[in-house]
Amino acid sequence: MTQFVSCERCKLSSLRGRSILLVVFAVLLYPATSHAQTWTQDLPADSPSARCCFSMAYDTSQFKLVLFGGVNGTGDLDHTFVWADANWTQQDPAHSPTKRYLASMAYDAADGKVVLFGGETFISGLRATHSDTWAWNGTDWKEEHPAKSPSARSSHAMAYDSVKSEVVLFGGYDANENPLNDTWVWKGSDWKQEHPANSPPARYIPGMAYDAAAGKVVLFGGLNSKGNVFGDTWVWNGTDWKQEHPANSPLARYSAAMAYDDASGQVVLFGGMDSAGNVLGDTWVWNGTDWKQEFFEDGPVARDGAGMAFDAAEGQVVMFGGVSIDAFLSDTWVWR
Asked: Distance between CA 194 and CA 251 in Å, rounded?
């Protein structure tokens, strides 16, 4: 039986009419040091309700960040929100994917649309894992019907490879809760499975982002069916995966938030859960060869299942929601 991730512990407890399991963990307090970037909380007039395990990506054609779905204390969600001008606005599209969480989403720059794949729904104690592909054009969702497609899955990762002009999908777990390590690419109308010589071990809920400075997709961490938590770093060069061996590295974790910060030319990673089930609140940056931990006096509370994306209009990374030790979150933070 797969070890349930944070979203599933949230889901199970809420659907059984119970509060989220309260687990007391020590949260490390990091000393402050001077640095160029820090976390700042934004206080928008409107905001999505508290949730975790939703999908989030930046729509470059619309200059807006797009958020879909997730799960909270009442169950699975199918809301679509956009972030622009320091505020969240709920959309009312004519069409929409069904309620789901643990789906993945990325902006397809070649096609000018946000692409969503998979995820799962939990209804009356039963899981339904999805294999559908949807595209957001800025005003409405449209279901795509590719000739080929990855198998139904959730907890996978997606990122857009701008060198190859394609969305890259890796891993997750299937309808039988088996972790996966297959690699697929989306090129606007169809999925194609890649067969690299090397590949990360099967896992779900890894962090993944495209490192534009290096021209490679970066993957970190994740979890497998045996409860093993990974702390490895891999890069995808468009044809093959290669494991990196940096001098410094974050603690092994899964369900962390990760995005590329175009302003600094680094990948940013925040939070997640470690192998002991501790919720983490540390921030790391990847410069293409090594990880470096950032320290600051004030910042987001420890969390996992948050969403993160780079807001090109404002030149900053935006992080929303997730779940802390004892509560779903609805706060918005920017890394600037």
From this structure: 29
What whole-number distance in Å separates Cα of residue 83 and Cα of residue 201?
35
Structure-block tokens of residue 240: 């093959």
Question: What pTM value is reported for the model?
Answer: 0.91
Provide the phi-psi class of 172: left if phi over 0, else alpha when psi is between -120 and 50, else beta. left
Residues 13-45 as b or e (16 or more Cβ within 10 Å = b): ebbeeeebeeeeeeeeeeeeeeeebbbeebeee
pLDDT score for 7 = 56
Distance CA 248, CA 286 (A): 10
- Please identify every stretch of the chain with a pLDDT value under 70, giving residue numbers as ranges: 1-35
The torsion region of residue 70 among left (phi > 0), alpha (psi -120 to 50) and beta comes to left
At residue 123, the pLDDT reads: 83
Give the type of residue at 235.
V
* pLDDT score, position 305: 98
Beta bridge partners of 231: none
DSSP letter at 224 equals: -
What is the pLDDT, as a whole number, of residue 21? 32
Judge whether 259 and 308 are in contact, CB under 8 Å: yes
Instruction: Name the residue type at position 188.
Output: G
Cβ proximity of 300 and 46 under 8 Å: no
Q: What per-residue confidence (pLDDT) applies to 116?
A: 98
DSSP code, position 180: B
What pLDDT is stored for residue 125 in this prediction?
A: 85
- Give the DSSP per-residue string, 105-169: EEEETTTTEEEEE--EEEETTEEEE---EEEE-SS-EEEE--SS-PPS-BS-EEEEETTTTEEEE
CB 312, CB 292: distance < 8 Å: no
Q: What is the DSSP letter of 98?
A: P
Residue 132 and residue 162 in contact, taking contact as beta carbons nearer than 8 Å? no
What's the longest Cα–Cα distance across the chain? 53
Structure tokens at 153: 């899955």
pLDDT at 20: 33
